[in-house]
Write a structure and sequence with these properties.
The protein is α/β, with parallel strands linked by helices. It is about 40% helix and about 25% strand. It has an 8-stranded mixed beta barrel with strand order 3-4-6-7-8-9-10-11, surrounded by 5 helices. The two termini are about 20 Å apart.
Length: about 280
């Protein structure tokens, strides 16, 4: 009943996401027998998630969220088309908060109030669009769900954080509101100054650049660099997470690098979309 009531509340108060956005007239959340989804401009949006585990453990320590878009022609595993349709800053701000709340609603429907932390994306265009007080509005939206910011890990592009002072200001604002922060795609050749910039921006979790998994598959000649990346992350107090472990071979190779956290379809199936 709580889930149905909160979905009804959000659907009648979409201006809370951004009162200046035109997209709010074309958006809404759905609850189909406990299965939470959303619609935006005729596109069905489904939240999916996957457990994140400690390498040595069998129980998840957090969950990783992803977006799935469904229309009459295809199913896509990306939110990018939605951002392509959001031409102005007001719609970008609305969309980013709307998707994060969808993930939170789905998380509650799966695990309840006392759930493990949930990793959600903050799009780089959202960082550009909001001038100050990043995280304040989302904190108010989460409060409606009984969720504290400490339960939501915000994932941001490491390259954006390293290149853009405004993005680092935004991340510090998020940190001030109590959100744990994840820098996604930290380069394997990151210099010491880069690690310190991320640390000063409040980053607590890191994942390596996508190419790292390809190098891990190629063999031991690259392992010294991969092991060193893990050590550098830990040396500044960050938690290293290696996602995308999809086969036993990859899991075996990456396990020898001794990462702290791992995830992938091999370790826990992403929940499939079910047509209503």
């Amino acid at each position: 009943m709580f889930l149905a009531r909160i979905i009804d509340y959000f659907n009648t108060h979409l201006e809370a996401f951004n009162p200046s956005a035109s997209l709010r007239r074309h958006a809404g959340f759905r609850n189909d027998n406990g299965q939470v989804s959303a619609e935006l401009g005729g596109i069905r949006i489904q939240s999916r998630q996957q457990p994140i585990l400690e390498l040595a453990g069998d129980e998840p320590v957090a969950h990783d969220s992803r977006i799935q878009l469904i229309d009459q022609h295809s199913v896509q595993e990306t939110a990018d088309p939605l951002y392509f349709l959001s031409w102005n800053r007001e719609d970008v701000i609305f969309l980013d908060r709307f998707l994060r709340v969808l993930h939170a609603l789905h998380h509650l429907s799966c695990h309840g109030i006392d759930a493990l932390p949930l990793v959600v994306d903050v799009h780089w265009r959202h960082l550009q669009a909001v001038e100050a007080s990043h995280g304040a509005v989302f904190e108010e939206l989460l409060a409606r769900l009984g969720i504290h910011p400490s339960q939501v890990v915000l994932r941001m592009s490491a390259l954006r954080l390293l290149a853009d002072p405004h993005a680092r200001d935004a991340s510090r604002s998020f940190q001030d509101h109590g959100y744990p922060l994840l820098a996604h795609g930290v380069p394997l050749d990151a210099e010491p100054q880069a690690w310190h910039l991320l640390l000063e921006a409040g980053v607590e979790w890191v994942t390596p650049e996508p190419n790292a998994m390809i190098l891990a598959r190629r063999g031991r000649e690259h392992w010294s660099r991969l092991i060193q990346w893990n050590r550098e992350a830990r040396a500044v107090g960050m938690t290293d997470w290696w996602p995308g472990l999809d086969t036993p071979g990859v899991l075996g190779q990456v396990s020898q690098l001794e990462p702290t956290l791992v995830s992938g379809s091999l370790l826990g199936e992403i929940q499939p979309y079910q047509r209503a």
